[in-house]
Amino acid sequence: MTRRWLLPLTLATAMAIAACESPDTPVRLTPYQFRLAGTDTVFHWPDSSLPVRFWVEPAGALPQYVDRGLRMWERQFLYGEFRGLRVSDSAAADVLVFMEGDPPPQAPLTGDPPLLVCEGVTLVPARQADPSGGTRFAGRLEVDVWWYAGFAASDVANCLARVTAHELGHALGIFAHSADPNDLMFLRPDAPAPSLRDRSTIQVLYHTPADILPWIPMPGSPAVAATTPIR
Amino acid sequence: MRGFTLTFLGLLCGAAPTARGQVLVGLDVGGMWTSDLAQDVIVNAISVAPALAPTIAVAVGTPISDVYSVGIRVRWAHSDVTRHELDADFTVLPLTVWTGTVTLERTLTNWGTVEGAVGAIKYAPGSDDRSATLFQDDAPLAATVGLGARARRPISPRWTLGAYLAYDVHQFVTQALRAGGAVGARTVHRVSGGISVYWSAR
């Protein structure tokens, strides 16, 4: 053995040691149901639709709640499966978000115990045949939220931020609810952000083949499509 | 094509060793292949890796003995990170990778050298919108070691042309992967190759 091989051998040994470690994949919990009840429909936004465009009614802090909710959901992904973007032109949007009633009082979000002083609903459009042979939504998804008077502004703000994030979970394709109150997608959401089970569910959803495509403008599309509400 | 091949082989076989005290400034241009940054199974098997990337490196070196030279090299590579799933590729985000190394080069023949390199790799995701990616919380900095081989031939008193083939390895993990429960880091292998031009300062 001559010294001329010392350098390559030393480096090869170092690289072999470095190559020994192998990682485990991220931890996931058993997902809850995400299919639309009664239809077994699986929907998620395809890569070709990203970023998904959200138009938000400029009512109080609703645009900020939507931005916050989108960022929270985006952070549940690791491999670029979803991106959302707020747009100013409702005609160019994939999802419409409305505040029913008066604009809500504005207040900073706090860590106070959650009160259900607001509600929301996501309207899932009916389906129609697509020229490609598949099935497609007949209209845009729509999210409506509203709030109740007589409560502290911070409680209303906390509730609207939480419920908006919950409804965005539906708009991303979780068309059902979790049975665990610790999950954001529990029917009456108390959790301020997606839980590990929410994270596992949305990840599984986005890697499950979808059997329905998002709406695109097509000749003959109804101006207003029938919808299935998910609260 | 035949003329190019003969010229290339001629270049490889005619290089002269560098003289002590000489300062060489080099430029590498080529391509880089990178192994998977992450593998996962979510319903389907998923792998995430940078696409084949163009790469450019700038190096400065000087001989320290009759056969050894030391140098520093900064390498740039840029491509899209893609997710491979169900025989399809999806773009995740653009990625630039910077590599800074200290190199020790040994002359083996009058036209060929081998080198070892140690240094650091800095990932620089190129998109502002990386919140849904494994780079959502950080852009890793990792130690790297590598080996390479070079062939070169002077084409004038100051200019040298050559080719290179290099391999390096590092450990890759991000905060997002750790936060998701991933344990350990993935060993990432990179192979790059291309042509080099050197300019001698004296």
In short:
The complex is a heterodimer of chains A (231) and B (202). Chain A has four helices and eight strands; from the N terminus they run αβαββββββααβ. Chain A is α/β, with parallel strands linked by helices.
Notes on the protein architecture:
Helix content of chain A is 25%, strand content 17%. By secondary structure, chain A is α/β, with parallel strands linked by helices. The mean pLDDT of chain A is 89. Helix content of chain B is 8%, strand content 64%. Chain B is built from two helices and ten strands. In chain B, a hairpin with a 1-residue loop joins strand 2 and strand 3 (44-50). Chain B is elongated and about 60 Å long. The interface between A and B is large, with 37 and 47 residues.
Helix count of chain A, per DSSP? Answer: 4
Radius of gyration of chain B: 19 Å
Helix content of chain B: under 10%
Percentage of β-strand residues of chain A: 15-25%
Q: Unreliable runs of chain B, pLDDT <50, ≥5 residues?
A: 1-17
Label the structural class of chain B: mainly beta
Mean pLDDT of chain B: 89
Q: What is the percent of helical residues of chain A?
A: 10-25%
**Mean of residue pLDDT values of chain A:** 89
Count all strands of chain B and give the number.
10
As an assembly, this protein is: heterodimer
Distance between the amino and carboxyl termini of chain B: 34 Å
What class would the helix/strand composition of chain A place it in? alpha/beta
List the SSEs and their pairings:
The complex is a heterodimer of chains A (231) and B (202).
Chain A: H1 6-18, E1 52-56, H2 62-74, E2 84-87, E3 95-99, E4 118-125, E5 127-129, E6 135-137, E7 141-147, H3 153-172, H4 196-206, E8 227-230
Parallel strand pairs in A: 1-2, 1-3, 3-7
Antiparallel strand pairs in A: 4-7, 4-8, 5-6
Helix pairs in contact in A: 2-3
Chain B: H1 2-13, E1 24-34, E2 38-42, E3 44-50, E4 53-63, E5 68-85, E6 88-107, E7 112-125, E8 141-154, E9 159-172, H2 175-179, E10 186-200
